[in-house]
Design goal:
Elements: H1 15-19, H2 76-79, H3 81-94, H4 99-104, H5 112-119, H6 125-128, H7 134-150, E1 169-171, E2 176-178, H8 186-194, H9 199-206, H10 213-223, H11 237-244, H12 248-261, H13 268-303, H14 307-325, H15 347-356, H16 376-394, H17 398-405
Antiparallel strand pairs: 1-2
């Protein structure tokens, strides 16, 4: 149905003024069980002017005399090749060549082998993915095939009630593949891949080996950056989100420092501190992005008057959930600067976020996320609950959460 499914109460209309601005912000890369330790050095930031940057003035007890200069990556093509190939493979899996193309009807995907051929391809995403999150990805493959088999479906009835049928389907003008639980399952792979699911897990693994300037190039590429760390250049994946959420400058500074310090064995302490700062901020960007998408979904639901607009609400929620839950089950590094503490957020805290939005990580089809379309107050409550988790985990206040909801790029 393409007619209005949602009756907006007069008392809710004023809220649109506060939420409307966030509708302009876009998302990169679309359309166009161990628990994290908290006992290692942590540098959670707010994405504001107070964000921790690489320390250019610290005096090392080992006698480091390096003063970091500007970023330079003359061997980028060689050093970043493996990470760039992983990024391309994730795009091939979730983008127009495979999963997104199947949703739009541009390509044919009908069997699990059509997906696993890319997942296990060259390079193999399966080989570098977070093993704790792999079961979620595999479940998303199964749900995706069921959604495609169901075909075009109207998932909400004329009274605005969530009625997805047995398997969900491909919904509305934007052809979103949404399962019976209200999850756009492709996003759990795509956006989960930007975070702990694939690229973060791969980059984190690099910190367990020799940390040379070449390693730092590879980490920067896995993040989604370009050879110059240029915010006006081509950014994708987590780096694109870092820019839009206001974290890019401080993260690029930390990597620049780490690379300079990696040139001198006397600067190991400084190098490791810079890398911890970088990874802590990468994680925090992902959870900040959850806050952004949750708030944007509220604004969209407030004014939704068609199937396509309702599908956009679930699209936002799936993207936000993807970047957050990708850290589920992430193993701890056994060596390097993040040994024993590869993340701050724990599986229990990830479960709290998932539960708030009705996402069932154990059985995606049993999720109740779709029913949030029936009630703006229920969606608002879910967003507030998730924001509370983010505040507790990263030690940020309500004012900072507001900047995540309406971020200033940088």
């Amino acid at each position: 149905m393409l007619d209005s499914h949602v009756t907006v109460q007069n008392s809710q209309v004023m809220a649109a003024l506060a939420l409307g601005a966030m509708m302009l912000a876009g998302c990169p890369g679309d359309d166009g069980s161990a628990e994290g330790g908290t006992d290692a050095t942590t540098t959670p930031t707010t994405g504001s002017a107070d964000a921790t940057e690489g320390d250019e003035t610290a005096t090392s007890p080992t006698g480091c005399g390096v003063t970091p200069g500007p970023w330079s990556a003359p061997q980028w093509d060689d050093n970043a090749a493996a990470a760039l190939a992983i990024r391309d493979q994730l795009d091939m899996l979730t983008g127009d060549a495979t999963m997104r193309g199947a949703e739009t009807g541009a390509v044919m995907v009908s069997t699990l082998a059509d997906l696993t051929a890319v997942w296990d391809g060259d390079p193999s995403l399966a080989a570098v993915a977070n093993p704790g999150y792999v079961p979620v990805i595999e479940a998303a493959f199964d749900e995706f095939l069921q959604v495609l088999a169901a075909g075009e479906q109207d998932l909400v009835d004329d009274q605005g009630i969530w009625t997805p049928g047995m398997e969900g389907g491909v919904w509305a003008k934007d052809t979103r593949g949404i399962n019976e639980g209200g999850i756009e399952v492709r996003q759990l792979i795509d956006k989960g891949g930007y975070s702990g699911g694939i690229t973060y897990a791969y980059a984190l693994g690099l910190t367990e080996g020799d940390l040379t300037p070449a390693t730092i190039d590879a980490i920067a590429a896995a993040w989604g950056n370009n050879a110059a760390l240029d915010p006006e250049g081509e950014l994708t994946d987590a780096a694109g989100y870092s820019l839009s959420m206001g974290f890019h400058a401080s993260m690029a500074s930390a990597l620049t420092d780490a690379k300079e310090y990696a040139e001198d064995e006397a600067c190991t302490v400084e190098r490791d501190e810079a890398l911890v700062t970088f990874f802590r901020q990468w994680e925090q960007v992902m959870l900040a992005r959850l806050v952004f998408y949750g708030n944007r979904a509220e604004g969209r639901l407030l004014t939704a008057a068609s199937d396509t607009e309702l599908a956009a609400v679930l699209h936002d929620l799936a993207e936000g959930l993807g970047v957050a839950v990708g850290y589920w089950g992430l193993p701890e590094p056994t060596a390097g600067p993040l040994a024993g503490a590869g993340r701050i957020i724990t599986d229990d805290e990830i479960s709290q976020v998932a539960d708030a939005f009705g996402l069932d990580l154990g059985e995606l089809g049993a999720s109740t996320t779709g029913t949030l379309l029936e009630s703006l107050p229920n969606l608002e409550s879910a967003v507030t609950s998730a924001e509370g988790v983010v505040m507790d985990v990263y030690g940020v206040d309500a004012a900072t959460i507001a900047t995540y909801a309406m971020p200033v790029p940088g």
